[in-house]
Amino acid sequence: xxxxxxxxxxxxxxxxxxxxxxxxxxxxxxxxxxxxxxxxxxxxxxxxxxxxxxxxxxxxxxxxxxxxxxxxxxxxxxxxxxxxxxxxxxxxxxxxxxxxxxxxxxxxxxxxxxxxxxxxxxxxxxxxxxxxxxxxxxxxxxxxxxxxxxxxxxxxxxxxxxxxxxxxxxxxxxxxxxxxxxxxxxxxxxxxxxxxxxxxxxxxxxxxxxxxxxxxxxxxxxxxxxxxxxxxxxxxxxxxxxxxxxxxxxxxxxxxxxxxxxxxxxxxxxxxxxxxxxxxxxxxxxxxxxxxxxxxxxxxxxxxxxxxxxxxxxxxxxxxxxxxxxxxxxxxxxxxxxxxxxxxxxxxxxxxxxxxxxxxxxxxxxxxxxxxxxx
Length: 375
Description:
By secondary structure, the chain is an alpha+beta fold. It is built from 10 helices and 12 strands. α3 links the parallel β4 and β5. The longest helix has 30 residues. It starts with a strand and ends with a helix.
C-alpha cells in the first residue's frame, strides 16, 4: 500500500470520497464524514493558521484509493523552535463523529499504514483523538505495544429514535419528564390562540441562514455560535457546498420567525446543529413546539403516501442541556485518547506540565481581577 499526502484540491480524491460516501460502504457515514464538511472546516479553521498543518493522507494500491485519513498537525512554538506537535482529526471542536474514510475491510490495514507513515514523517508527534466512541475503529487498531495510550472522559451525546415518539407523548410515558408534556400543552394552547405557523423545508436560502444567525445571537448573546465571524463564514461556506442536506424548521408569528432549528440530514438521521429564538417569544414555548412538529413530520419525510421511510433518528449531538435528558433521549459518552510513542514521552509530559501551569496562572489572574473589581 502506498501512502501519500494530498490536499483538498485533489479532484481524484474528491470524486472517490463522494462516490464511496453516497454508496453507503464507509465504516461510518454520518453527515460529518462528508467531503464538504471536512473541507469547509479546514478552509475556515485550519488554512492560514501558522500553528496548523494539513495532513490529509490517502492509501492506494495501483490505481485504486483504499482510504483517506483527514488529519492536521497542531504545533506549539517557543520562539522559532517547535516545542511539540500532535496529530488531530480535521473537524476538532465541532465534529461529533470521527473516522477514517474507508470501507470496513480496509480499516485495520489503514490504521497500520497511518501509524507507520506518521512515525517516519512526524517522529516527534503524538496523537490526540477526541470524542472516541464505543465501536470506533481506533479501538481495534493494532497500536504498537510499546506506545502509551491514555484515555480521559469526553463529552455527553444524546439521540432520540422517533419510532417511539407517540409513546413518549402519551400522558403516562415515564421516559419523558412532566415539564416536557406541560410545555407541549402550553404550546398547543398558544399555537391556536396566537395563530402560530410552522414551516419545514430541506435545502437552504440566504434568508433562512440570516434568520438563524440573527435569532441565535439574540438567544445566546455572547455565547452565540456566531459571536465569531469565522463561524458565520464557516456556515455560509458549508451552505454553498452542501446546502441540499440542510433542513430548516421555522416557527412563524405573523410575518416574523420567532424560532428556528437547523438540522443536517444523512439518510434517516437528522443532526440537530443549531437553533435560535426571539427572547420576547419565550413565553410561547416555541422550541418545544418546533421539535414536536419535527418529530411528527420527519417519519414521513420521503413518503408521498404517508408511509414511514424507515427508522428515523434525531441526533441531538453533544451537550448536557436539561431538555435533552427530560426528553428521555438515549445517552452515550465519549473518551479522549492520547496515543504517545516512546520517542515523544518527554515532550508529551512537558506539554502537560506547561498546560497545567498555564491553567493555574489563568485561574489566579481571573481571581485577582475579581478581587480588584470588588475593591
